[in-house]
Amino acid sequence: MSTREAQPLLSVYHALKKCHGPQYWWPAESPFEVMVGAVLTQNTAWTNVEKAVTNLKDSDCLDPGKIIALPVTELAGLIRPSGYFNIKAKRLRALCVWYIEQGAHSQLSQWNTTELRSALLAVHGVGPETADDILLYAFHRPVFVIDTYTRRIFSRLGIFRDDLPYEDLRLNFEQALPTDSVLFNEYHALLVSHGKDICRKQPRCNLCCLERICINPGFINRQSSGVKYEDFS
Ligand code: SF4
Questions:
Q1: Same domain (yes/no): 12, 99
Q2: Residue with CA nearest ligand 1 atom 3
Q3: Residues 136-188: tens digit of each pLDDT
Q4: Closest listed residue to residue 69, CA positions, set 40, 99, 96, 101
Q5: How distant, in Å, are the alpha carbons of 39, 131, 143, 152, 213 from that of 114?
Q6: Disulfide-capable partner of 158 in 215, 224, 227, 233 (CB 3.0 to 4.6 Å)?
Q7: Structural domain of residue 103, as residue ranges?
Q8: Do both 43 and 62 map to the same domain?
Q9: Where residue 208 sits, what CATH number does that domain have?
Q10: 4 Cα–ligand 1 center, Å
Q11: Residue 100 CA, ligand 1 centroid: distance in Å
C-alpha cells in the first residue's frame, strides 16, 4: 500500500479515537502478565481472562518459574475461567519454559523484532495474533495485530477483504502507517472497543462514527449518506 493510501487508515484511527477516547492498553501490570493474557484470551472474552489472571495472582503463581513448577492439572484449574483450560495450561507452560530458557524479558528485549516474532511463532500454541499481541504490548514493537474485529470493521468499510491472509493484512497496515508502536497500540485497542460496542456482529450503525464512509452499513441504506469510500481518502 502506498503512502497516499495511508490516509484512510489514519482517518479511521482519528475518528475512532475521537469517538472512544484513549484506551490505555494492555490491561496488565507487567510484560509477563501481558504474555499470559495473550495466551489466555485465545477464543474467549477478556472478562474470563481477568478471572483466570486473578486466580494466578491470588495463588501467587503469576510468575514463569512458578507456573512451570505447577502440575499441569493444577495450572488448568487456576485458569479454568478462561475456557479451553487444559489446552491453555499446556500452551502457557510451553511459553514459560521458552521464556525462561531465553533469559526472560531482559534478554528477549534485545532481540530484533523479526527474530523475536519467529521464535514466538515456534512456541507451542502461539499463533500470529498471540505473537503480535506479545510483540506489541509486552515488547513495544511496531507490529500491527490483526483480529476478528479488525477484519470485520475494515471489510465492512470496504477497505480490506476479510478473507485476506493474516500476514497480508498485517503488512498492509504496517506498510501504510507510520512505524510507531504507540500508534499501533492505540489503534488495535480502539478497533477492539469499536468491534465490541458498535460494529458488532449485528452492527449498531446508527451510533457509528464511521457510518459516513462505510460502504456496507448493516441497517441503513447503502446510498443514504451519499458519501463513498473514495471521498474519504
Ligand atoms: S457503519 Fe455499521 S457496518 Fe459500518 S463500520 Fe459502522 S457499525 Fe460497522
A1: no
A2: 217
A3: 999 999 999 999 999 999 999 999 998 999 999 999 999 999 999 999 999 99
A4: 96
A5: 20, 11, 10, 27, 35
A6: 215
A7: 31-137
A8: yes
A9: 1.10.1670.10
A10: 24
A11: 43
